[in-house]
UniProtKB/TrEMBL annotation:
Family annotation (Pfam families): PGM1_C_vert_fung (PF24947), PGM_PMM_I (PF02878), PGM_PMM_II (PF02879), PGM_PMM_III (PF02880)
Alpha-D-phosphohexomutase alpha/beta/alpha domain boundaries: 13-152, 184-286, 295-407
Organismal lineage: Bacteria, Pseudomonadati, Pseudomonadota, Gammaproteobacteria, Thiotrichales
GO molecular function: magnesium ion binding; phosphoglucomutase activity
Keyword Metal-binding in annotation: yes
Keyword set includes Cell membrane: no
Protein name: phosphoglucomutase (alpha-D-glucose-1,6-bisphosphate-dependent)
EC number: 5.4.2.2
Record's keyword terms, sorted: Carbohydrate metabolism, Glucose metabolism, Isomerase, Magnesium, Metal-binding, Phosphoprotein
One Gene Ontology CC term in the entry: cytosol
Gene3D superfamilies attached to this UniProt entry: Alpha-D-Glucose-1,6-Bisphosphate, subunit A, domain 3 (3.40.120.10), Alpha-D-phosphohexomutase, C-terminal domain (3.30.310.50)
A biological process term (GO) from this entry: glucose metabolic process
Cofactors, names only: Mg(2+)
Reactions listed under catalytic activity: alpha-D-glucose 1-phosphate = alpha-D-glucose 6-phosphate
């Protein structure tokens, strides 16, 4: 029986960089999830007779939320739901499934790399017909609707079964429970040279380790790397998804994937290491004794794209988020293809990909992807690297070094200050904003400021404008310092400081990054007064 439940708005339902992310206990408040879902269904266009994909990263509350969404979808017009078995779909797999079955859109339940469990985080976002995150026009409409909501509609019925693959009906609505891995694995085999990768993984010498961090990519990596590509059993570690990610923080970076990093930096270690995050869209790439920064990884993938079957014909263009280093710009220039600079947030790549203006995109936040779907894709990046290694028959370290020798190196680091009080963070950003008009022309530690602004993006496709996307300070020598507040945290504010220096001298390509960037790090602290305002002596995380 369909019931209309009376409700009242919650004032904290504005989606951030990637959907609505909150503590689980916030989502557990009566009517909280239901209000957001109703606001979402009311904002995404005509839902009558449409097909909706649903899945999540398996974290605590995933299945509970899915049952609610299913019961609301049934009375909001949908005619068919496609749901991953056990409610699982990695974010890239959800994007793949939306596109493959030409669905109206999808609901993805994830808080990405944020810790999970009863005390952890939960999240929900809507992806549109192209498989990508809803643009700001829709996320803002969801927020506005959430602020005026007075009731929602839900079917009163028993829970559906998420365990058996197959078809069931809820009133007139068809529900297909699908294998969450199969469609994605097939797509990967269409893109990459699986026989070449298989030959590498089975040559008896090459060793690799993939850390699924107890999150969603375990089943995907086991199926693709171990089963289809023949990597030895045990290549995938922490491969069984757990509702609390085993108490960990599935963020594939030097801090949170420390065990993997240690193994790759040991005297005798694997040739290749990789990790993905909670929902499978991020990636970290390591070689024996080397960490490849996400910005370098983007540049190297683009420079080697012709080795990959799907990209043999060349790239239409490359896109990167504004804070991502300019390493890929050098590749675009050499390939004579356009380079696009967008705000942080994968949603900003969607229009460029749909318009076929770019083929490969990437972000400093461990995200890389291409036109094959409309989300960043962790395992895709790992397979891309394996394909390059299989063809070039060189180590990761040799490939990176040769890349720097050819294109120059962009030394790059990101310093995160997590959970600082929101008022302090706002004060710090306001202080920077006030300095903007006077900075150009000033000499700071020997670097002359070329420009200072708060980044605005003018989308060349739909002409929309996104303002206040981060404070940029560019120097005449190509160095950059960027400040912005994260849009994905759930506690206090996270200040991100991005620092980049350009090096073309072949004698200076192999220095320690933090040492090389020391003078710029000092400039950043003195301009933003980080230490004095936050009381912190060091960042929480350095990547
Ligand atoms: C999300 C977005 C990314 C963004 C990242 C960090 O990733 O999809 O585009 O780069 O957050 O954003 P922020 O710097 O605002 O925290 P994910 O993997 O968390 O979904």
């Amino acid at each position: 029986m369909s019931t209309t439940i009376t409700s009242q708005p919650f004032n904290d339902q504005r989606p951030g960089t990637s959907g609505l992310r909150k503590r689980v206990r916030v989502f557990q408040q009566k009517h909280y999830l239901e209000n957001f879902v109703q606001a979402m269904f009311d904002s995404v266009g005509d839902t009558q007779e449409q097909t909706l994909v649903i899945g999540g990263d398996g974290r605590f509350y995933n299945q509970t939320a899915i049952q609610t969404i299913v019961k609301m979808a049934a009375v909001n017009g949908f005619k068919r739901l496609i749901i991953g078995q056990h409610g699982l779909l990695s974010t890239p797999a959800a994007s793949c499934v939306i596109r493959k079955y030409q669905a109206f859109g999808g609901v993805i339940l994830s808080a990405s790399h944020n810790p999970a469990g009863q005390e952890g985080d939960f999240g929900i976002k809507f992806n549109i017909r192209n498989g990508g995150p809803a643009p700001e026009s829709i996320t803002e409409a969801i927020y506005q609707n959430s602020q005026h909501i007075s009731s929602y509609q839900i079917l009163e019925c028993a829970d559906i079964s998420l365990t058996e693959i197959g078809t069931q009906f809820l009133q007139d609505m068809q529900i297909d429970i699908i294998d969450p891995v199969a469609d994605y694995a097939e797509l990967m085999s269409d893109i990459f040279d699986f026989p070449a990768i298989r030959a590498l993984l089975c040559n008896g010498r090459f060793q690799m380790r993939f850390d699924a961090m107890h999150a969603i990519t375990g089943p995907y990596a086991k199926e693709i790397l171990e089963k289809r590509l023949g990597a030895e059993a045990g290549t995938v570690i922490n491969g069984v998804p757990q509702a609390d990610f085993a108490g960990g923080h599935p963020d594939p970076n030097l801090t949170y994937a420390a065990e993997l990093v240690e193994e790759l930096f040991a005297d005798i270690g694997p040739d290749f290491g990789a990790a993905s995050d909670g929902d499978g869209d991020r990636n970290m790439i390591l070689g024996h004794g080397i960490f490849v920064t996400p910005s370098d990884s983007l540049a190297i993938l683009a420079a080697n794209a012709e080795l990959i079957p799907a990209y043999q014909k060349g790239l239409k263009g490359i896109a990167r988020s504004m804070p991502t280093s300019q390493a890929a710009d050098r590749v675009a220039q050499a390939l004579n293809i356009p380079m696009h600079e967008t705000p942080t947030g994968w949603k900003f790549f969607g229009n460029l990909l749909d318009a076929d203006m770019v083929t490969i995109c990437g972000e400093e936040s461990f995200g890389t992807g291409s036109n094959h779907i409309r989300e960043k894709d962790g395992l895709w990046a790992v397979l891309f690297w394996l394909n390059i290694l299989a063809i070039r028959q060189q180590s990761v370290s040799e490939i990176v070094r040769q890349h720097w020798q050819k294109y120059g190196r962009n030394y790059y680091t990101r310093h995160d200050y997590e959970e600082i009080p929101i008022e302090i963070a706002n004060q710090l950003m306001e202080g920077l904003q006030q300095q903007i008009p006077d900075l150009a022309g000033q000499s700071l530690n020997g670097h002359i400021v070329d420009y200072a602004d708060n980044f605005s993006y003018h989308d060349p496709v739909d002409k929309s404008i996104a303002e206040n996307q981060g404070i940029r300070i560019g120097f005449t020598d190509g160095c950059r310092i960027i400040f912005r507040l994260s849009g994905t945290g759930t506690q206090g504010a996270t200040l991100r400081v991005y620092i980049e220096a350009i090096e073309d001298n072949p004698d200076n390509l192999f220095e320690d990054t933090q040492t090389r960037l020391k003078d710029l790090i000092e400039i950043a602290d003195s301009l933003a007064k980080i230490k004095s305002l936050t009381g912190r002596n060091a960042p929480t995380v350095i990547t």
